[in-house]
């Protein structure tokens, strides 16, 4: 090996050692940050609630009912949000609207009853969508038609006469 090759090899080896040391330091700092110093550097929790609540809710005393105007406003706001953001769950919606899920329950029931919105999924996986054409979902709309034509089955078998 000639002199130039040896010098190149030495510089590459020095670079690799230096780079390895920097990677090791970075890993140690990340672990320290995650385990100890990160916990100490976080601000202490304040007495404020975690969730941002709407002004009408915050102004009410605990247990005080919402006025019809507040409910109508919340229902309109919820409908607009679902129309603009279809497929979101109630927790996402509440977070985006700055309220708690409990405050949305009545508005959701009203919009579902009026066939303004529809759902997909069950329980915590329920997602909300604008209703198709403002009518009831297709599955509910076809069931009466099937019964009227005599194609619906009772007890799993069609009665024979």
Structure in words:
By secondary structure, the chain is mostly helical. The chain has a domain at 67-134: Arc Repressor Mutant, subunit A, CATH 1.10.10. Helix content is 58%, strand content 5%. The chain contains six helices and two strands; from the N terminus they run αααααββα. It has a two-stranded antiparallel ribbon. A hairpin with a 6-residue loop joins strand 1 (117-120) and strand 2 (127-130). Helix 3 (68-84) crosses helix 5. The chain is elongated. Mean pLDDT is 75; it is low at 38-42, 44-57 and 135-156.
Topology:
Layout: H1 3-41, H2 55-59, H3 68-84, H4 90-97, H5 101-113, E1 117-120, E2 127-130, H6 138-148
Antiparallel strand pairs: 1-2
Helix pairs in contact: 3-5
What is the 3D shape? elongated
Question: Distance N terminus to C terminus?
Answer: 102 Å
Structural class based on helices, strands and sheet pairing: mainly alpha
Please count the helical segments: 6
* Helix/strand order: HHHHHEEH
The total beta strand count reads: 2
Q: Classify the helix fraction into a percent range.
A: 55-70%
Mean pLDDT: 75
- CATH topology assignment of the domain at 67-134: Arc Repressor Mutant, subunit A
Q: For the largest beta sheet, what order do the strands appear in spatially? A: 1-2
The second-level CATH architecture of the domain at 67-134 is: Orthogonal Bundle
Strand content: under 5%
Sheet with the most strands, sense and barrel status = 2 strands, antiparallel
Q: C-alpha Rg, in Å?
A: 30 Å
Note poorly predicted spans: 38-42, 44-57, 135-156
CATH classification class of the domain at 67-134: Mainly Alpha
